Records
---
Amino acid sequence: MAGGADAPVRAEENGWGLPRWLETRHGLGPRRSRDLIARHKIMVNDAVCIETTRRLQAGDRVVMIPETASVPMVKAKRRGLIPANPEAPRGALRLLHLDDDIVVVDKPAGLTTHRNTADLAEKHNRNKKYLPTTLFDLLRRQLSDGPGSPLPRLWPLHRLDNETSGVVVLALNPDAAKSVAQQFRDHTIGRRYWGLTRGIAKPGRIASHLVTDRGDGRRGSGEECPDSRHAVTHVRLIQAFDGFSWIECQLETGRTHQIRIHLGEAGTPLCGETIYDRRLHSAPYPDVSGSPRIALHAHDLEINHPQNGRRMAWKSHWPQDMQKLANLFAKQAGVTLEKLD
C-alpha cells in the first residue's frame, strides 16, 4: 500500500483483524504489519490505530502514514495539533483510541482518574505540588508535543476508583464532552466490569436507592428520599470456584461505588474490598483471597461517537494481578479457567 493510500474494507473482510487485513490486501509480512501498528503508522477512519487486536468492519477506511512523517498528528478542534506519540516513555498510559474528539485509555490500578472537588479547592494552596499524579495529568503530558510545549485540554467524563483498572474515555473538545456527558446522563453508555468476589455471587438484577450514610457512616442502600440515588446493577456469573466467583457487572446507572456496594450488601463483596465488605451493623465478611486491591476491572465501554453517532466499543482484558488471582482460584477448585474476549 502506498504511503497515505486510502483503502476501504470490503464486505467479505468484515471482522478481520487489522494485521491479517494488511497482510492479505497489501502483501505485508506479519512482523511488518504489527510493527507499523505499534509505531502508529496506520489510521482507521481518521483515527490513529493503537491496537494490533483491532477488528475491522466493512466500509472502514485504512490509511498508512508515510514513513517520512515524523509523528502521526491528530488535529483536534480548537486545540491545534495533538500527537499520537509513538515515542511515549516507558510506563506511558496504554491508549485504546485517539481521534479529534475523544481519547480512550486503559487505566492501571492505583492511579486516580482525576482530581475531586476537594483536591481542586487546593489549587492555590502551596501543598498542591504534593497531591498524587492522576491519569488526567499523565495523559495531558503524553499527548503534548514534548517538554516545554503547551498541555492539551481534556474534559473528564467519568471516573474509576483508584484501585479499579480498565477503560476510561475523555473528551478533547467541549462539543464532544457535551455529547458524551449527555449519553452518561441518559444511561445509553454500555459499561461492563469484571470482578472477583468472595463467595458465589447470585446472578440477576440488583436495584436500590443509594445514600451517603446508610446508618454506619458508609455509603449504601437506604429508603428512597430526596437525597437518594436510584442504582441498578446487572450481575452475571461467569465462573464459580471454591468459595470465590468471577462475575460480570453491567451498569444501568453509574453511581459512586455502586458495584462495590451492591455486591457487599448481597453478601459477596469483591476480593480486596475493605469498606463495602459487610451488611449494615454486621462484621466484615472474611477475605482469604490475598488480593492486594479491590478486584474490579472496567472490561469494556461503548458509546456513540460524538461526531458521527457511530456506536464504538473498546475492551481491556483484565490485568496481570487479577489474571493470577483467577488462575489461583481455578487451580484450587480443580477447574479450567473460562476463556473470554
Note: The chain has three domains: 1-69, 72-186, 190-341.
---
Amino acid sequence: MSWLARLSLANRAVVGLVTVLVIGFGLFATTSLRQELFPSLDAPVATILTPYPGASPDVVEQQVTSPIEAAVDGVDGVEDTRSTSTGGSSVVTLDLAYGTDLSTVTASLQRAVQGVALPSGVTSNVVTGSTDDIPVLVLAVSSNLGADRVAAVLRDQVQPQLAGIDGVSGVTLSGVADPQVTISVDAAAAAARGVSLASLTSLLQSNGVRIPAGQLSPDSNPTTVEVGGPITSVDDLRNLYVTPGASASAGATAARPGAPAAPSAPAAGAPVRLGDIATVDQAPAPATGYTRTNGEDSIGLSVTKAPDANTVDVSAAVRDAVPSIIDALGGPAQNAQVTTVFDQAPFISSSIEDLTTEGLLGLLFAILVILGFLLSVRATLVTAVSIPLSVLVAMIVLDLTGETLNILTLGALTIAIGRVVDDSIVVIENITRHVARGGPRRPAIVTAVKEVAGAITASTITTVAVFAPIGLVGGQVGELFRPFAVTVTAALLASLLVSLTVVPVLASAVLKVRPPAPGASPEADEDSPLTHPTRLQRGYLPVLRGALRRPVVAILVAILILAGTFALVPGLRTDFLGDAGGNTVSISQELPPGTGLPAADAAARQVEGVLRDTPGVATYQVTVGTPGGAQGLGRPGGGGGATRFSVTLTDDADSTAVTDDLRARLDALGGPDSVGNLTVQGGQGGFGSDQLQVTVRAEDPAVLEAAAGQVEQAVAAIPGAADVRNNLAAAQPSIRVTVDRQKAAVAGLTEAAVGQLVAAS
C-alpha cells in the first residue's frame, strides 16, 4: 500500500484539491441528512380490522374471523395467523416473512379479503405499519367555541393547512363527533299509507346519486347527460317521495329543494312524502368515546411524516403553525389552547446533541492524548486531521446510501473516533523517526509509510471484518443495525486511506524535526528505549521484563481476567434496544367485556386523578372508546376494547422512577375489579416495547381458560415481571332472539327481516 504514499507525494496539489472537495461534500451531506431517533423499520406484520357493530364474539368469529383466516392463509408471504374476536370487532394479525414487500402483500391481502362473503355492511381494512407511521407530533386542541365549531375549523382549515406542510404524510383527527341524521318512522302513519320499512330503505339507497345517462351528440360539442344529484340537507330528505306498494327504485321520486310539498292527505296509491310519515333530524352522533387532555375535553390531532422527510423539520414546521391554529379557534378571547401531548423532535434533537457533544469531547481528548505522546504540536495536528476527514467521508456515504442521522449512526461515529486516529498515529510516529535521522525528506517519508503500511492495513481490515457482518444479519436486527455497520466501516476505511495519502503529504509540508547532533549515528535511536528511556518507558519496561521472566504467571493472569469477564456476562440485562430514555409513558386500561362507555369513562377518570397528582407528569391525554371512529369496535355503546393514556413527563423527570411510581399508585386503586387491568409502559422513546407475549393454545375453551390462568401465575412469579395478565375474556352478556319461522312466514317475514326490524327499533 506504500504506492499510495508515493503517488500522493508526487501529486500533492491533487491530494489537497480532493481533500477540499471531501470537506465540502461532507459538510453538505451533514446538513442534508434527515434526523430521526432510529432508522426507518418496516414491521413484518399485517393486521386486518373488521368492525361488526352489535355482533357477539361467537358471531364475529363464525361470520367474519374464520372466513378471513381461510382466505388469507394461502397468500404468499404469510407465515402465521392470529386472531381476536370480540363483541363488535374482528382483528386478524398476520406474521409476514421478513423482507416481504409490504405494498405487494397488502394488495394481495386486500384482494383476498374482497373475495370473502362478509355480512351486509361489513367491510375490512388491511393495515401495515413501520416506524414512519409513529406520529411526529400529537396535539390536543380545545376552545370555548363549542365542539361542533372546533371540529369544523379543524376539519376545514387546520387539517388542510397542516397537510400542505412539506414532509407531512397525514393529519388525523380524533375525538370529533360527526353529525348524524336520524329518521324516525311513524309506523302507524306509514302502514296507513301502505309504505313498508323495506321500501323506505330502498328509497334512501336509490336517491342522492348521480347516474350517467349517455351523451347528446349534435354536430359539435357533445354534452354529457347525468340524472340525479346529491342530497345536501335535511329538507332534501324530508322531500323524498315513495310510492306505496311499489319498489322505491321504480316509484320513489325526489323533490328538488324549494319544491312544493305534497298534499297532506294523498289519495290511495299516490306518492307519499317522507317528511309526512317520519321525523328527520340532524344532531351530533351519539358519543362512541371521549378524548381529554389534562382532564379537559379536547380533540386530538396527530401528524405523521413521509418516509423521506426530516422528523425535526416537520415538527418545527407544525409548531410554527400553532399560533395560526389558535387564532382560527378564536384566540385568547375563546380560551383557545393547543397542548403538545407527544413530540419526537425534542428527544431526537437532545439525543443527537448529546452524542455530538460526546463525539467532540472524544475528539478533543484524543488530540490531547496524541499531543502527550508525540510531544509535537505539528505532528498532533497532522494526525488529528484524520478524524474529521474520516467522519466527513462517513457522512457522504450515509447520504449516498439514503441513511439518516440517528442515535445508531451517531453512536457508530462516536465509536469510530477513537479508532480512526490509530492508523495516522502509527504513520506519523514512524515518519517522525525516519525524518529525524536526516537525509532527503521524501524518500524518508515513503520508507516510513512502507514499513507500517502492511500492519495498519491488516489492523483496519480486521476491525472492519468485526463490524461489517453486523449489516449482513437477517431480520429486524439486521435492518436496524445495518446503518451502524455501514457508518463504522466507511469511517475506518476512510481513516486508512487518509493515513496513507493525506498524512504523508501534510507531514512533508509542515513537519519539522530537529536534525541529529553532529557525529551522532543515524541508527542511534534504535537502542534509545534501552539506553535513554522516556518516563513512559521507565514505567513499562519493568512490567515487560517481569512478564517475560515469568510467562506462566502472565498467562494465568490473562486467563483469570478472561474468566472473570465471562462470569459477569450472565448478570447483564438482555433486550432489543433497552431503555431509550424517552420522556413519554403509555398506559393501557383493559376492562371486562360488556363494559359500557359510561363505566369505562368513570374508570378512566380514576386513573386521571392519579396522573394529576403524580410528580413528574407534565401533560396527559386519555382516549376512552373510539372517539370519532367506528362505533362498536369492542364495547357496547361505542366503547373500544381499551382505554389508552399518553403521558408526557417533565424535562427533569426520571422516566424509570416515574413509571415505577405510577405502577405503585395505580395498584392502590383497587385492582382489576375496580379499574380493570392496567399496563404501564415507558422509556421507549416512541420505539420498541418492553412487553413479552406468551401464546397458549387449546381446543377446549375450559382447558384453555385453566391453562391461561396457570401460565399467568407462573409468569407473575418471575422476578422483574410486571403487569402480567391474559387476554382471554370472560363471556360477554348477550340476548338471542329465536324466530319462529312458521309464524314469521305467515306474517310475510324472514329471519333477516326480523333482524332488521329489531336492529331498527
Note: The two ends are 88 Å apart (CA to CA).
---
Amino acid sequence: MAQRSLEITIISAKGLKKVKHLSKMDVYATASISGDHHTEQKTPVNKDGGTSPKWNHSMKFKIDETLLTGQTNHAFIIFKIKCDRTLRGDREIGEVHVAIKELLDNASDDNSPKYVTYPVRKPSGKQKGEFNFIFKFGDHKIASTTGAIATAYPVHEASSVYPPPQHMVVPAYPPVGYQPPVVQGGGYGYPAYQGMYTPPPTPQQPPAGYPPVGPGYGYPPVVQPEKRNDQFGGLGEKFG
C-alpha cells in the first residue's frame, strides 16, 4: 500500500488553562492518528512550564495515501496537552484536532517544513490557548512486503500442445541396429527380442513317413509299372 511520511515537531504552547494552582504545571503533549491509539507518541515533560510550555520535540507518522486523496477530512492528528501529576493522576488541559488533508493542502510548494498555530480547546469545548508545531510530508513511498507477489496461476515452461507419451511404441519391425532391452525371467506372453531382426527360417524337410515336398501344387506324377519277358515268352508285369 502506498504511504507517505509525516514529520511533526511540537514546538510550544501558550495561554493554557491553569489546572494546578499551588505551583507551576509540568506539561507534556501527545499526538496520534484518529482511530488508532497505537500511533500515539509523547513529548518529554516540560518541568515548571506552566501555561506556556516548550518542547521542540519531533515525531514521525506513516500516512496511507487513501487518507490524502479525495475530499475526505475524517482522518485527524489529535494533540492532547496534559499536566503531569504524581498523586492524583495526569489531568487534561486541552486538545487540538487537525485534519491531515488540511495539512497536505497547506503544505509548502517545495515541501519544506512549515510552521503553523492552532487554537487549544478545553475539555468543555471552549478555546483557551494556542498550540504551535512544524510539519513536513515526505516523498511517496511504497510499503515494503515480506515476500514476492505470486501470479494467479503458476508459471510453466513452454510445452507442446499434447504431452509426450509415457511409453515408447515399438514398431512392427525394429530398425536396423536396434538393441532392445533384455527382459529378465520367463512367464507368459511374447518372448523378448534377443538381438537384431532376422528373416524367418526356410522350411524344414518333413519327418520320415511323409513324402518330400514337391516343386509345386497338384497331383503326383503317374508311375508306369515295369514290364519284362516271362518264361512263357509273353509279356508280363513285374511284381515286387
Note: The chain has one helix and ten strands.
